């Protein structure tokens, strides 16, 4: 908006100075034209240079621009005594008056420079008056009028700027609220999509294995590998922790003649993010295949150890070896499956080999810094986007346009009232004796004041002026113009007694501000036409009269028309452009928020799941784990229960804890376990991370229960406890170890107690609400 106002000020001043100066030269005596031209032509050239500076501001320092503006008013003021007469007085007043008004927009961000130019203009007018009329004092009325114009223009700028800034703040608040709604909707949509993917893939597979359905498991390995790929597409999956030692224990050695016996030495456990872990696992699997195909030996050494915050894995054989430089570029086993795969997750892989000297492949993952570059920097391919809208018709554009319209209408109304009750009122009172009749002019003044009061009452209440009131008021203003034009002597038209000529346009402008500028231009044309008709009907005017009328029209109506053009540009050009820029910026912020929040959501939800589910899918997918093994089926049952609890997190229910607990119970019941669930006390609110820790020990215990179990939830005013009693718990990996592995990344204060006796186990998880919260669960 500031740039638009600056351009408006320069163009307005330049046009008025050139047109009024040309009319002043035409009205001058032939003997005075050369001298007047020597003053006005440099002023015209200074205006041209100022216009050129709008295109190349880098070429003109501010001091030079200020000097050019000062030169215009000085040269214009000095032309008054040269041309002489009433046309010269009108010309200089119009040119200097418009200039000092325009300076308030050209130098809007530097008000002292604008005020200095306005003071210089006033001084030049005084000097011109003194030189034009030696022996008489300067006319103070034009100076007062000029001061009022400067103050009004500055006040109008401040009003529009304040309302525009308020509109920006309000639009930002509205956009932030809309952004939060879109982010929440996108997060819900994304969560539903990924939960559905897990439900249809890994959850279903693990549940079928836990139930031991069928004897033909030939479908399981490819299905498990597909499920692992589906999980890998979940944002945040790549940062979930897995045990690299457990993954490497699942590397297939092959069968028959292609079997490679691996001598494994691993300093474990090695906990690393699942993305690098799977990249290393797949790379080692490819390297073992290469040993079987090309090395000529059937043994290889597989080692793994920690190095700083990272891990190193090395596979070596004593086979025939090869020259890595001789490998064709079309062979992508090493470059694609080993090297490029590790680079994609922030690690590195090297292959060292020589003919008849064996081969060594080494994978290095460089710690959390390298992982974060891939885990957090890549955007999920299927992140929902906020809906795109037609920017010109968005609520933001309409809101900004409405606030700008309201501000400009208030500014124009202020100009109308101040001008009418200062300059116009004085002229009406002083020249009562020249009107024919005087009561018509007084009535017209009251009518014009009534129009301003009625319109202002709507604007001050923040309401739009109704069409009937608007067009009735416009008709009244045009009637005022006609009455004043035809009840004033023609020779005094646009002169000092003509109080209405310069003020009715402002009243019409605030009434027609929201319409296209051609409507206001038509009103001004009718207004000028009425006055010209009144002058013409009284007799043919002289050239000086026509010049005076032309200068007054340019100085008053031309200025008003240019303001109307500026308002139209702000409303129909700047407001949509601002709305477009705001919408684009808001869309980018919304996308970033959606991406960040969903990354955080998925990391929190899937990080713990990754550590236990991925090794199962890897083992089932590559034959290291058998679905006939009871321990494998029990582990699959535990993971299926954890996934079902995860799905239940997104349900909108009154008691989320009980809902998620029932999801785990249903999985156990699918396996034929009889579960008795009871709840005591009045449920309360529990944070989601606490619910995860409260329920997970129960899920682990139910997953390893063969026949019956009893689950109890006890609520007290400040605590909640969830316990499970399993009568015939299966052996295998310790329940406490499984639960601790699953929840190592969480920080909520949940206490877990376990008691085991023979085949029975009792597990209780409890959480106490922090006293600082001050909220009672009852």
Automatic annotation (TrEMBL):
Biased composition (Basic and acidic residues): 728-745
SUPFAM superfamilies named among the record's database cross-references: ATPase domain of HSP90 chaperone/DNA topoisomerase II/histidine kinase (SSF55874)
Keyword Transit peptide applies: no
GO molecular function term, any single one: kinase activity
Histidine kinase/HSP90-like ATPase domain ranges (all copies): 283-364
Transmembrane feature ranges: 10-28, 34-52, 59-82, 88-105, 112-131, 143-164, 404-423, 438-459, 471-490, 520-540, 546-571
InterPro entries: HATPase_C_sf (IPR036890), HATPase_dom (IPR003594), Sensor_HK_TwoCompSys (IPR050482)
Annotated region described as Disordered, given as residue ranges: 364-390, 728-748
One GO biological process term: phosphorelay signal transduction system
Top-rank lineage group of the source organism: Bacteria
Record bears the keyword Transmembrane helix: yes
Keywords linked to the UniProt accession: ATP-binding, Kinase, Membrane, Nucleotide-binding, Transferase, Transmembrane, Transmembrane helix, Two-component regulatory system
Listed PANTHER family: NITRATE/NITRITE SENSOR PROTEIN NARX-RELATED, OXYGEN SENSOR HISTIDINE KINASE NREB
Protein known as: ATP-binding protein
Organism name: Streptomyces liliiviolaceus
């Amino acid at each position: 908006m500031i740039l638009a106002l600056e351009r408006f000020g320069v163009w307005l001043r330049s046009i008025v100075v050139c047109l009024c100066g040309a009319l002043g030269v035409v009205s001058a005596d032939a003997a005075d034209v050369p001298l007047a031209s020597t003053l006005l032509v440099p002023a015209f050239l200074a205006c041209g240079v100022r216009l050129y500076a709008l295109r190349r501001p880098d070429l003109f320092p501010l001091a030079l621009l200020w000097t050019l503006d000062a030169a215009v008013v000085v040269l214009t003021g000095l032309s008054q005594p040269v041309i002489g007469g009433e046309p010269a007085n009108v010309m200089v007043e119009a040119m200097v008056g418009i200039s000092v008004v325009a300076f308030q927009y050209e130098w809007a961000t530097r008000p002292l420079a604008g005020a200095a130019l306005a003071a210089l203009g006033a001084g030049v007018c005084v000097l011109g008056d003194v030189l034009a009329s030696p022996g008489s004092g300067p006319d103070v009325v034009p100076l007062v009028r000029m001061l009022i114009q400067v103050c009004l223009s500055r006040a109008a700028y401040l009003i529009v700027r304040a309302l525009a800034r308020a509109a920006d703040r309000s639009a930002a608040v509205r956009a932030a609220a809309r952004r939060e709604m879109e982010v929440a909707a996108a997060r819900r949509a994304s969560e539903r999509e990924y939960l559905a993917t897990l439900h249809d893939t890994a959850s279903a597979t693990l549940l079928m294995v836990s139930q031991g359905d069928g004897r033909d498991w030939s479908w399981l390995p490819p299905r498990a590998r597909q499920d692992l790929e589906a999980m890998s597409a979940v944002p945040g999956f790549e940062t979930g922790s897995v045990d690299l030692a457990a993954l490497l224990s699942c590397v297939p050695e092959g069968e028959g003649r292609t079997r490679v016996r691996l001598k494994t030495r691993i300093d474990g456990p090695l906990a690393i993010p699942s993305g690098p872990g799977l990249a290393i696992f797949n790379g080692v699997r490819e390297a073992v295949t290469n040993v079987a195909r090309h090395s000529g030996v059937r043994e290889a050494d597989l080692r793994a150890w920690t190095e700083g915050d990272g891990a190193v894995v090395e596979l070596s054989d004593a086979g025939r070896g090869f020259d890595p430089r001789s490998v064709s570029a079309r062979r992508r086993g090493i470059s694609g499956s080993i090297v490029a795969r590790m680079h994609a997750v922030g690690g590195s892989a090297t292959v060292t080999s020589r003919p008849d000297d064996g081969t060594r492949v080494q994978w290095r993952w460089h710690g959390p810094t390298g992982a974060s570059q891939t885990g957090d920097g890549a955007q999920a391919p299927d992140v929902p986007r906020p809906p795109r809208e037609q920017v010109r018709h968005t609520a933001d554009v309409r809101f900004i346009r409405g606030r700008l319209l309201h501000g400009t209408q208030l500014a124009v109304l202020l100009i109308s009232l101040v001008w009418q009750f200062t300059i116009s009122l004085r002229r009406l009172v002083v020249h009562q004796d020249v009107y024919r009749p005087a009561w018509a002019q007084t009535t017209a003044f009251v009518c014009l004041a009534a129009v301003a009061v009625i319109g202002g009452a709507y604007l001050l209440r923040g309401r739009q002026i109704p069409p009937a009131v608007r067009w009735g008021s416009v008709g009244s203003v045009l009637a005022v113009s006609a009455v004043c034009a035809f009840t004033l002597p023609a020779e005094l038209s646009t002169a000092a007694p003509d109080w209405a000529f310069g003020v009715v346009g402002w009243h019409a402008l605030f009434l027609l501000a929201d319409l296209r500028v051609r409507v206001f231009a038509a009103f001004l044309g009718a207004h000028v036409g009425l006055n010209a008709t009144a002058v013409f009907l009284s007799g043919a005017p002289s050239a000086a009269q026509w010049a005076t009328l032309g200068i007054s029209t340019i100085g008053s109506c031309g200025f008003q028309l240019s303001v109307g053009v500026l308002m139209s540009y702000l409303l129909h050009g700047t407001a949509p452009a601002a709305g477009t820029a705001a919408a684009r910026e808001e869309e980018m912020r919304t996308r970033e928020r959606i991406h960040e929040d969903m990354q955080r959501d998925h990391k929190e939800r899937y990080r713990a799941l990754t550590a236990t589910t991925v090794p199962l899918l890897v083992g089932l997918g590559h034959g290291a784990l058998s679905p006939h093994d009871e321990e494998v089926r029990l582990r699959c049952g535990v993971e299926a229960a954890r996934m079902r609890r995860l799905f239940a997190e997104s349900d909108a229910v009154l008691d989320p804890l009980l809902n998620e607990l029932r999801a785990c119970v249903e999985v156990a019941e699918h396996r034929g376990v009889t579960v008795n669930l009871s709840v005591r006390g009045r449920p309360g609110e529990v944070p989601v991370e606490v619910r995860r820790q409260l329920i997970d020990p129960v899920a682990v215990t139910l997953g390893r229960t063969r026949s019956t179990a009893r689950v109890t939830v006890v609520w007290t005013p400040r605590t909640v406890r969830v316990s499970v009693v399993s009568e015939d718990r299966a052996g295998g990996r310790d329940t406490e170890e499984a639960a601790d592995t699953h929840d190592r990344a969480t920080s909520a204060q949940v206490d877990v107690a376990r008691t085991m006796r023979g085949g029975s186990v009792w597990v209780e998880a409890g959480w106490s609400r922090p006293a600082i919260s001050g909220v009672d669960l009852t």
